[in-house]
Amino acid sequence: MQYWIPKALAVSVLVSLSGCSVFINEAHNERNYRTHEPVKAPESLSQPAQDPVYKMDVGQYDNNPEATNYRPPAQVLTVAKGSWVEEADKKARIYFDKNDGIDDLDVFIWDSIQAVLADNNISATQQNKMQGTLETDWYAIVKPEESWLWGDDESVDLERFKFTIEEKSHQRTASLTAELIDFKGDHTLTDLLKQQLEVRALNQVVSEFDYRYRQLEVDMRKRQGIISLEMGFDNKGNAALVTEQAYDTVFDRFSGFLERLSFTIVEINQDTGLITADYNAPESSVWDSIWGDEPTELPIDEGQYQILVSKTKQGGTSLTWMDDKGETLEPGTMNGLQQALEAALIQRGIKI
Question: Is 135 helix (H, G, I), strand (E, B) or coil?
């Protein structure tokens, strides 16, 4: 599966956002300060009067021209659907509300943590799924190519983290906390650096949670598609595609479905239920394959077709496909068409 591109993009956005500002602020460089002397009047004029109440001493500044690596605390990013944080929370912690499609919220979070460990090629040294605690092995939360966190120094430090999942009694909300439990490297572990590393580790899990839930939403949309198009017969005994959906529902939406499959609607007859459409095979491109949106090509020739939408005796709906001369397509062609339409419904998550 070529899912790495959107996932890599999501992770890169999180890294850039959570790192806060990485630009050098030159506002306090000593060359930007100017000493203002009192106004000097020409010899032919008297010095202007100056109220001693408002007299100010000339400012003197002793600035270090060397750049200092000051950065604000990192932010927990609530990019995942249903996630939120408490204001003034001193811990690297985030809350998740249970979204549609998630059976067990704590299990979903747990699996997201495991996926992050797999991405970093590490395992857990201690874990208790029932208690919702997991301690990681050593790994570098800041990779060599991301050494901007350390400034110009490219040395890499290693960390171990403890993740804790706490689920509310109603099981609709759970929190995830990241805690730095061990650190080794050349840098001094300050409170600020500790906070930045913990938030960075937490945001990796949030990113994974968001990615996994987006995948789940796609699967849910696919399952919502009406895929009960089966081979059958219309009321006249012609080979047709049959669905249990009501006639009004199918007729109102089927033309829109055809347009997504490279059909151009020519005419819709509300009285007879006849839809006339031209089919042109779609052209695929490299970008379609990269983004997973390759067009569906149907096993029929290009040209004009007539689709008769009718009520069946069982209360469902039949779709009788005919060519431009009004002749019903052969059963073999209909069988291939049924499989292609069913695959298109599943792939695109379309609901007729």
Answer: strand
Distance CA 299, CA 312 (A): 26
- Integer Cα distance of 282 and 74 in angstroms: 47
Question: Whole-angstrom Cα distance, residue 183 to residue 136?
Answer: 12
The count of C-alpha atoms lying within 13 angstroms of the C-alpha of 113, restricted to the half-sphere facing its C-beta, is 27
State how far the Cα of 85 lies from the Cα of 192, in Å rounded to an integer: 19
Residue 315 CA to residue 50 CA, distance in Å, equals 99
Q: What share of the chain has pLDDT > 70, as a percent?
A: 74
Cα gap 137→160, rounded to integer Å: 6
Helices (H), the chain: 4-18, 105-119, 191-224, 247-259, 286-290, 331-348
pLDDT, tens digit, for every residue of 237-294? 888 999 888 888 888 888 888 888 889 999 999 899 999 999 988 775 544 444 445 5
Cβ–Cβ under 8 Å, residues 220 and 81: no
* Helix (H/G/I), strand (E/B), else coil: 332: helix
> What digits encode the pLDDT tens for the residues 54-81?
777 665 555 555 555 567 788 999 999 9
- Bridge partner list, 311: 317
Helix 191-224 and helix 105-119, axial crossing angle in degrees, nearest 10:
120
Report the C-alpha gap between 200 and 197 in whole angstroms: 5
Backbone angles phi, psi at 13, to 5 degrees: -65, -40
